[in-house]
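User: Can you predict the 3D structure of Heme exporter protein C? Sequence below.
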Amino acid sequence: MAAPTNTIVAVEPAITLPYIMGLEERARIIFFHVPMSWTAVVAYLIAMIFGIRYLRSRDLAHDAASAAAAGVGTLYCILATITGAVWAKFNWGSFWNWDPRETSIFVLLLIYFAYFLLRTSIDDDERRARLSSVYGIVAFVTVPFFIFILPRLLPGLHPGSSDDTTAGPLLSPKSEAINPTKQVVFALSLMAFTLIYFWLMNLRLRATNLERTMEQQRLENV
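Assistant: Sure. Here are the predicted structure tokens for Heme exporter protein C:
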């Protein structure tokens, strides 16, 4: 089997999706893996914003929104990790290679798992909201470093690593790497995953409000 190259080739770019020599159809992971990763970053940003709003207002509704945003964002981050691992199996021969990108995602997931562990370990609503908001702000500071900076500073297997001459198809300066067809499909995928995220966040918020109402009714009936 010939070793994969990094040469980007387009076949009838006006009507077909471009592909990368050595990746072929496996390049279609871009339409799932990248939008989910990007939406996870947006979700963690929203979680931080609501955390700041809670610290300024002490409104528990903002804390609930922050937790919902982080929860759905972590779901997206897990799905992005799983799809990336499946792609790695077919492209690199193993589900997990401790590539800098994989390692940074693993550390990021641990950071947000600790966020939810913190929330479940505190019974007092006000104290939980205050500490979670502070933690959520600090946690988001690490997100740009682990997602955008560290994987590009170190050599690795993932497209966009410091020793990757193509910087990946999405960021490639070659026009055939992301032709109009691919741009449209990628934009639709990005929009769809973002809309699904906000829908899931809304469902999580409604479930949280329902749980609180039921708990209040239970306490009133005691």
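Residues 27-166+183-216 form one domain. Strands lie at 8-9, 19-20.
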